[in-house]
Amino acid sequence: MAGSHPYFNLPDFTQPSTPSTPPSLPSHQRCWPSDATKGLLVALLGGGLPAGFVGPFSRMAYQASHLPSLELLIGRCLFHLPIALLLKLRGDPLLGPPDVRGRAFLHALLNVLSIGCAYSAVQVVPAGNAATVRKGSSTVCSALLALCLESQGLSGYDWCGLLGSTLGLIIIVGPGLGTLQEGTTGLYTALGYVLAFLGGLALSLGLLVYRSLHFPSCLPTVAFLFGLVGLMGSVPGLFLLQTPVLPNDPLSWSCVGAVGILALVSFVCVSYAVTKAHPALVCAVLHSEVVVALMLQYYVLYETVAPSDIMGAGVVLGSIAIITAQNLSCEREGQVEE
């Protein structure tokens, strides 16, 4: 009798075979990226890479027309104000619900302080080093704050990636800190590093505050408030602390426009990512900004990149790979498979 063997279940080779097609999983069994994976990828591609261009472009604007840092912050805040039209079309309050309005304003204030410190630091120290100190301090502070305030732990691989990325940042910035010049130049350089550190601390606090906000249209609301609070603080500060400059060359205007657009994209992506993944991991993935800034520092600004910078950038990239690989997972039928 033609057919399969009763004991070995062998197929009948006497009949013509039909081409086999790989079985497709039902829609409820297909593998989709988990929330943590989505958050880290968005932070890497939409947060870190665009932000890496902000520091060098800011330095180019300063070198071309001595554009003050607060004036550059005003230009960036102007790109956030049109989000008010989106909130109006959706019928949402511009300042957020009354019960969370205070925390929303606090988040905007912390981000304005972080960006203001970063723009000031990049004018006196190399863009790559300023981004290194800011991202390193934000990562360490985010991990400590999440452990102390949220009781949110990390796995061993995550800690390995965090320590590795911090080590890479120390390798990059360590030699520069050890060779500070004496006198006024060295004092300004040290002040630039202090401002970069404070910018990272304010960034980590802002991310922690944002994770506590839960209401519809949260992301566009905080983006609009950033522009509003930034203008309210930077416009008076510009006339009191700095001298306004009206750029008259296309390079400065192009840099201001590029900084505003890229920074807005990075702001939105980082705010989304921190709701999906641990804030310390998001900050660690954002270390990719340092690598981009170092590349632009060498190829565009023609500033020296030391061998320690290259070595530290390699360590940072390896640490990002560890964190990303550890958190790569897929969700199937409501369960997470790594």
From TrEMBL:
InterPro entries: EamA_dom, EmrE-like. The chain crosses the membrane at residues 40-58, 70-89, 104-125, 159-178, 190-210, 222-245, 251-274, 281-300. Residues 40-173, 191-324 form the EamA domain. It is found in: Membrane. It comes from the Eukaryota. GO terms for cellular component: membrane. Belongs to the SLC35G solute transporter family. This is EamA domain-containing protein.
